[in-house]
Design a protein that fits this description.
Layout: H1 7-23, E1 37-41, E2 44-47, H2 48-58, H3 61-65, H4 70-92, H5 95-121, H6 129-138, E3 146-156, H7 162-177, H8 181-188, E4 193-201, H9 207-210, E5 225-227, E6 230-242, H10 247-277
Antiparallel strand pairs: 1-2, 3-4, 3-6, 5-6
Helix pairs in contact: 1-4, 1-5, 2-4, 6-10
Pfam families: Rotamase_2
Domain PpiC: 127-251
Keywords: Isomerase
Amino acid sequence: MSLFKHLGPLLIAGTVLCACSEQLPSDPVSNQSQSPVLVMVNGEAITENDVEFAIQKTFSEAELMLADEGLRKKVLESLVASRAMRHAASLELTLDERERIAQRVASYEEELYVREYLRMHTTPQPVTTAMVEAYYNKHPEYFGADDVLELSVLTMSADADEANKQWFLQHVGKLKKVDDWAEQAAQWQSKQLTFSRQRVEQSKLPPKLKASVPALAIGSVSSVVVDNGQMQVVKVTERQSIPPKPLAEVSAEIRKRLAPVNVKRAVKTASEKAVETAVIEWITPR
């Protein structure tokens, strides 16, 4: 495939380069003035450095190995076209539109400086074995640890008669004291109260039950849980713990999770250092 397929995006890149170069005319590290001028467009120079930068930014090393003699000429032509379009647009845009573009250029320029500052001043600490173990021990639920609960459940449907709902609320204290709900279930059917046994992982409990059931000891009964008109009381009859996956299996995953945390810490330290050395005057109250 022809390398010239990149020249559409390159036109845009050239426009950005033109805009950025205009924002930093006195940049002390710039050697634009020492680079040979290849063409003038409306009084603005396009230099050899401009062409070289555009080529390196647009094409990979593998693509450049296949480039022919016409590549540099095509790149230069695309930069001429983008410079001409930038000039033409600047004559047509309103002052507000030009200011918005200037703000975007300034924002991007600041972003580049921040990247360079962080590159020079941040050294994220490596993720240690101790950090991995601490994270693993603190969050076993992230790695498969769970409790499997055997539950006895009394449910008053949301569609039940209002009289039966009131009966349930009035008698729930007595119902909790019944040892064998299954044995008594037939007597409650006329009250639209149903009994069921459920085996469920604690992490998969409905949100309303998850708020109260995990803390229950075996044999304990929850308070009445109301969810969209449905009322339930739950008794925990058995609890089986599932251990997390072995640390050796998940240590690589933990390191991936912790690495960005260390980067954030390093960035925070660097930003605080920059603020401490800056002269800051708050015009409005913080």
